[in-house]
Design a protein that fits this description.
single chain, flat, membrane, mainly alpha, EmrE-like, 106 residues
Length: 106
C-alpha cells in the first residue's frame, strides 16, 4: 500500500508542476488553486508512504516520478524538445528509480 501511495504522490507532483507552469507565476487563479491543492495532497500521500518506506527511497522515487512525469508532459503537451540526449537523461532517471525499488526491502 505504501508504494501505491508513493506513486499517487508522485503523480500529484506532476499535476502541481504542470499547473504551476499554467499559473504563470501564480497570476492566474484556477491553475494556482490546482497547484496548491495538488501540492498538499502530494505531500500528504508522501508522508503516509514514508511511514513504512525508507526516507531515501521514498523521496527519491517521489521526485523521480515527478521529474519524469513533468518531462513527459513538457514534451507531449507543451511541445518541449525531445532530443536524443534529453531522452537518454530521462531513461537514466527511470533506471535509477527501478534500482531504488529493487533495492528497497519495504
Amino acid at each position: 500500500m505504501a508504494w501505491f501511495m508513493l506513486v499517487v504522490a508522485g503523480m500529484l507532483e506532476v499535476v502541481w508542476a504542470f499547473s504551476m507552469k499554467q499559473s504563470e507565476g501564480f497570476t492566474r487563479l484556477w491553475p494556482s488553486v490546482v497547484t496548491l491543492v495538488a501540492m498538499l495532497a502530494s505531500f500528504g500521500f508522501l508522508s503516509v508512504a514514508m511511514r513504512s518506506l525508507p526516507l531515501g527511497t521514498a523521496y527519491t522515487v517521489w521526485t523521480g516520478i515527478g521529474a519524469i512525469g513533468a518531462f513527459a508532459v513538457g514534451i507531449a503537451v507543451l511541445g518541449e524538445a525531445a532530443s536524443p540526449l534529453r531522452l537518454l537523461a530521462g531513461l537514466l532517471i527511470v533506471g535509477g528509480l527501478v534500482l531504488m525499488k529493487l533495492s528497497s526491502s519495504a
